[in-house]
Amino acid sequence: MPDTNPGWTPVGEIVVTQIQRDRLTGGEPNVYRPDPLLPVEQLAVTSAGVLGALDGGWMLDVHHDDHPGGHRFTPDRALSFGFTSHYDAMADRFGAAPPGIAGENVIVSAERIVTQADLAGGIRVSTSGGDVVFDGPKVAAPCAMFTRYLRGTPDAGFEEIADDRAFLHGGIRGFVMRLDRREGPAVVLRTGDPVAIRPAG
Length: 201
Hints:
alpha+beta, M1 Pyruvate Kinase, Domain 3
C-alpha cells in the first residue's frame, strides 16, 4: 500500500528490539562483548531513553538517563536504529554478523544501505498508538574494539583495522536518534511496526 504522507519512503518493519544491560566494551584487555545485549518483547521510549519489556517487567537500557551505570555520551539520545541491509554488508565483509550484534535497540528490515542523509528528515514508526517520529540522526561511530570483534582479530593495531573501521562508519554500524516528543506517555515499539524514512527538505 503506497504511503499517503508526502516525503516519507517506506523501508521495512522492525525485526529486532533489544536493550543493552551494561557497556559492551571493557575488561582486561579492553574488548567488545555482546553478552549484555538482551532481546526484549517491546521497547518503551521517552526522551530520557529506552526501557525493555521482559517477563512482565521493565529493564533500563544502559543509555537511559536513570541507569545507575549508564553512559549517555550523545545528547538527546532516545535510542539507536540499525538496518538488515547494513548487516548484510557487514556479513559480506567480515563473515557472520547477526542483526543487532552492534548493539542497536531497533533493527529494521531494509533492502538498501540507509545513509545519514536519508534520515535527515527523521525515521517514522507506525505503532499501535499512532505514528511517532525520531529525528536528529547521528552516526554510531564504530569503536576499535567492535571492529576487531567483527574481524576476529582482538590484538590488531589501529593501522591494521583502519580500512575496516572506515567501512563501518557513515552509518553501517547504525544511528542514534532523538525523540521529537518531549512530554506525554512513552512510545511503545514492537517487532512488525512499519518504518519509513525521510531526507531533508
